[in-house]
Amino acid sequence: MNDVARLAGVSSQTVSRAVNSPNLLSPATLAKVRRAIDLLDYHPNVAAQSLANRTVKMIGLFMPFTQEQVKSNMFFHSLSATVCQRCAQHDFVLQLFTANPDESYVRLFKRLYREKRVGGLLLTCPSMNTKEIGELRSSAVPFVLIGRPAAPDLDVDYVDVDNAAGAHMAAQHLLNKGHRDIALLNAPKFMTLSEDLRSGVQRACQEQGEPVRFTEIHSELTYKSGLEIMRRLIASDSRPTGIITADDLLALTVKRAADEARLRIPEDIAVISTFASGWYDVMEPELTHVDTGFERIGIVAAEHMMKVILKKNPPPLRTVLDVKLTEGKST
Amino acid sequence: MNDVARLAGVSSQTVSRAVNSPNLLSPATLAKVRRAIDLLDYHPNVAAQSLANRTVKMIGLFMPFTQEQVKSNMFFHSLSATVCQRCAQHDFVLQLFTANPDESYVRLFKRLYREKRVGGLLLTCPSMNTKEIGELRSSAVPFVLIGRPAAPDLDVDYVDVDNAAGAHMAAQHLLNKGHRDIALLNAPKFMTLSEDLRSGVQRACQEQGEPVRFTEIHSELTYKSGLEIMRRLIASDSRPTGIITADDLLALTVKRAADEARLRIPEDIAVISTFASGWYDVMEPELTHVDTGFERIGIVAAEHMMKVILKKNPPPLRTVLDVKLTEGKST
DNA sequence: TTGTAGGCGTTATCAG
DNA sequence: CTGATAACGCCTACAA
Q1: Among all strands, which nt has the closest C1' to A33 (CA)?
Q2: Taking 80 as the threshold, does the pLDDT of residue B150 lie above it?
Q3: Does the residue A327 lie in any domain?
């Protein structure tokens, strides 16, 4: 910076102004400084900037991935891609963090913030409990939950897609097609997602005048676990006629189990997914699914966090994004 | 830091030592300082550290993802997960970057380094040309290529899996099973991967005594493009008996096209993939594939970059990781 | 084994 | 509109 100042014949403060508030300079000085900046290929040191500014233009994205989840969960990948692009547009940077065996979630989050590594965090912790969230809330660390918190009254920023509504739509769709024996191949019990899906389906069943049989089964959101469950379910004497899956990967297990049992989709058994990540393309017949547009989650979360970091005091974030049904040929 | 020093009754320098070189302190002082650190929950400010140290313990991972690639390419996701974990173990941080429409690759890389955002970069640019690489090399930006550079004589650090050997193995496997009419469903032309695969298969064909018919087709590494190609290929009068795919996603398109044409795998047509990411699980019958252990790429690359950043002067990185064949039931 | 002085590269504040 | 001065929080070098 001093080199630039010397070359331009101004003080270093003027160089700073040329970078941060060019409108405060006279056109002539600005031009001079800019030429010097280009000539020397000067780039401000962001470490020095955040030291002087006391603001860190970096967002941390936390994803507690295990090997299994990494391989099958395209949601995480899509999320990081979206957030990364959004950050870049605002001169922010995205940092990735994952679970650390010898440090609790909350401790890690606090540390990252106190070390000024990040200005705030985006958290995808499907199992973070109320106590942990409360602790984090009282610690001044800015954060946004991806997915809704277990206790809805908690005063916390979050974004989610409306999974309950999605499940409701999915169930209604099957009911309208005449199905009266429905199974929900759900996510693991500990995920709040799993509650949302169940309640959505149940509500649809209750709204239906006639009696409906409803079975819920928790999978691990992996192909292996889903396939095992579906094989058992299809072989059982009480095979449902319609299946709602938490995920398009699970829908593939329905297809496979049906193939093995020589059942046709949708004639013998119908499938609908409340979520479609990349597995969707591979499904045959084309999968009826709830289109969550989950890419929006990352955008909303990142946008909010950047405002918080820049001290723009945005209103609390309690966003539940709407979803819609896309009919394929599997129902 | 000053607060800690005051509380412990020492100078701030001693606090610094307690953090960075505890062995230089007497046990008594160290204990005192540590107690103060815990009491005040002190965490060093990393921005100040890198300013004073002139070293940035951050690694940038660049992935030029488009929407399509994001959804289908689990390689990228797996890579970021691996690197993220490895970084965390050494108190490094991973930052994610993607292509920016109004800035060239090289310009972006230089900027990130000059701004001291990252200490070095890991680059997954399947199409970066020799000129760009040369320009980057002469710019003092530390970087490691993921995948080999187009010009092998370029004096550049890189890690790759031995795709040529993998393709060679795959072709040999088919030849040993008696196939004499082989097709390679390859990656896009511009990727160096695509050359490697072709050369591996060709070598295997030449080594075979008898004449072998070999067809190469470039896909876009997406389900849609692969399926189109496979439908045409299977319908044509010169349908190959064995197919080598660049990817397990492409292997799924073979399966689908075969199903549609009522061909059985492996009796009527055999499939083998030179790479298996997460799609592998979904394939039926179990996919014969080259096991690249590509997770190792991220580890090797990150490990090297951290040494470079810490000025440990590691030897040049010219690593081509070995691969092995895993036989399934699709050949 | 510990403390002091000075600097890392930037910005805020206050004068002019 | 521009410049001087003092931080920002830490570390290196040197001195004691």
Answers
A1: D2
A2: yes
A3: no
